[in-house]
Amino acid sequence: MNGTNISNTILDRLAADLSDLTPEARKVATYVLENPLDVGVSTVREIAEAAQVKPNTVVRMARQFGFEGYEDFRAPFRDAIRNGAADFPDRARWLQNIRKSDDLGGLYADMVQDMLRNIEETFAGISAEQLKAAATAIWNSRNVFVLGVGVHNSNARNFTYLASTGMVQIQAIPKPGSTPVDDLAWADERDVLIAITCKPYRSEVVEAVNIAKEQNMQLVCLSDSPASPILRQADHGFVVSVETPQFFPSSTSIIAVLETLLSFVIAESTEEIVDRVETFHNRRHRLGMYYEEP
């Protein structure tokens, strides 16, 4: 099943009844068993062409297993892709298929529903005490390194940018021309690493977290599963829900947790952070960096 969990019941039934099918229907069932991801992103004609049968053979095979037609048969395979059972290219093909069928209203509803659900599920598993403990470690540290690569690079840099308006010991890594492990070369127990990665986990982030652990750094980690290799190492771990119809993990809940964590850092800090933020923005106003109506 290509490493997926796509509709195991349907696939098991296809495999069990394969010998009872007509030769042409057997071609379709065999193709589905060997290429389950294709069902979720392909039209009936595309499946028929790939299986070298006529389109009505595909429809008859679906009805033989209790479905009204091919679209009904395809639905659980599409759901599996939407819920993360497929790789990035398969999700991209699925989105293109939605566009071709002009079902963008359904995609819109799925996107909104998933983003709201991600926020709810994420914060349902996080307590104020957890955030307070992580915020205290961050504020009391000598240096804070914030690591995210790929789609999470912007999340890490956004957190660093916001925090740097009041914190002087924070930096995003990897720095230009460097690597995360090089950036952590002289860090120790006085320092904190905030690391972000979700499936498929990035090797350089996992390696940096392992190095940070060896160097006794405090680890604040955000990932999408309690089994994540970085959460297993974390002193302060946060499981974030990142489900989406898109072909990349959603950043909605990650940004929400980071912004909430920063608010806790400010709450845990001393008055000097307020003075720094005020000085930072007053300087910008003085230099004309903020637009003002004439």
Would you mind describing this structure in some detail?
It contains 14 helices and five strands. It has two domains: 8-102, Winged helix-like DNA-binding domain superfamily/Winged helix DNA-binding domain (Arc Repressor Mutant, subunit A, Orthogonal Bundle); 125-286, 3-Layer(aba) Sandwich (Rossmann fold), CATH 3.40.50. A five-stranded parallel β-sheet has the order 2-1-3-4-5, sandwiched between helices. Helix 2 (23-34) packs across helix 5 (55-64), helix 8 (104-124) packs parallel to helix 13 and helix 10 runs parallel beside helix 13. The chain starts with 7 loop residues before the first helix and ends in an 8-residue tail after the last helix. The longest helix has 21 residues, at 104-124. Residues 1-6 have low confidence and may be disordered. The chain is of the alpha/beta class. Residues 8-84 form the HTH rpiR-type domain. This is Als operon repressor. Keywords: DNA-binding, Transcription, Transcription regulation. It comes from Thalassovita mediterranea. Pfam families: HTH_6, SIS.
